[in-house]
Amino acid sequence: MSLDDATFDAVFTSDDSRFVDDAGVEEHLAVQRWAADADDADHALFVDPCSGPTLDLGCGPGRLVHALLLRGVDALGVDTSRAALGLAKARGSVVLRRDLFDRLPGEGRWQHALLADGNIGIGGRPARLLRRVGELVAPGGSVLVEVRENGGILQESRRLLVDGRLGAPFEWAVVGLDAVSYLADRAHLVHTRTLQADGRWVAELHRPVRG
C-alpha cells in the first residue's frame, strides 16, 4: 500500500487534513506550518547545520529548500505531490517530482540530506529508508532526521482524512529518539548528536568515511 498522490495533493488545498491510524485515532497535519516560511526552529534544526549541497526528501511546499537557498546553500527538494511542488516553485524553491527510491541527481555526493516533518515514516520501513538516504550523501555527509522524543518504532497503516473524505490505507512509521541509534546502525550510519528546538527533535546521523 502506498500513499495516493491525488489524495495527498488535496491536503494543500484543505483547511482540515488529518492522519487516521488503525485504531481510528486522528492527528491533524501541520499544513499551515509546512506552507509557511521556515521558522526559528526550522533554522536551528535544519538550515543552520547545513553548510553544503543539501537534499530535502519529502520537501512538500519547499520552505526548507527556500531558506537554504536564501542562506547561499545549494539545495534541491524532492517530492511526489504536484500540488506541494507547485507551491514550492512559486516561492522560488528548486524542486524535482520523483520518488526518493528512484534515481536522483548527485547520488552519493550530497553533503546533507533532510527528513523533516516526520518523513522518516515514508514507506513504513524506516531502516530501509535510512539505508537509501545514506546512499545519497557523500562519505562524511550527514542525514538530519526529525523524530519524536520517545516511543520506539511504530509501523502501521494510515489513511488521510481530507475534508471528511477518507483515502486508501498506506504504510507509515513513527520513530522515537530512543530507536534512532538502532536504526542508524542497521543503515550503516552513526548517530552523532541530537538537536532540539521548540519541542521538536532531530537526530543527526553521519555516513562514515571509509579508508
Percent range of helical residues: 25-40%
CATH topological fold name: Rossmann fold
Strand coverage percent: 25-35%
Average the pLDDT over all residues and give the rounded result.
94
**Side-by-side strand order of the widest sheet:** 5-4-3-6-7-12-11
* Elements, N to C (H/E): HEEHHEHEHEEHEEEEHEE
Number of strands: 12
Fourth-level CATH superfamily:
Vaccinia Virus protein VP39
Q: Detail the poorly predicted runs.
A: none
CATH architecture grouping: 3-Layer(aba) Sandwich
Report the structural category. alpha/beta
The general outline is: globular
Q: Termini distance?
A: 40 Å
Count the domains. 1
CATH class: Alpha Beta
Can you characterise this structure?
By secondary structure, this protein is of the alpha/beta class. It has a single domain (5-206), classed as Rossmann fold. The protein has seven helices and twelve strands. The protein has helices at residues 5-11, 31-35, 40-47, 63-70, 82-90, 126-136, 180-186, and strands spanning 17-20, 26-28, 54-57, 75-79, 95-97, 110-115, 137-147, 153-162, 165-166, 170-175, 190-197, 200-206. Strands 5-4-3-6-7-12-11 form a seven-stranded mixed sheet. Strands 1, 2, 8, 9 and 10 form a five-stranded antiparallel sheet that branches. The longest helix is centred in the middle third of the chain and has 11 residues, at 126-136. The N and C termini lie far apart (40 Å).
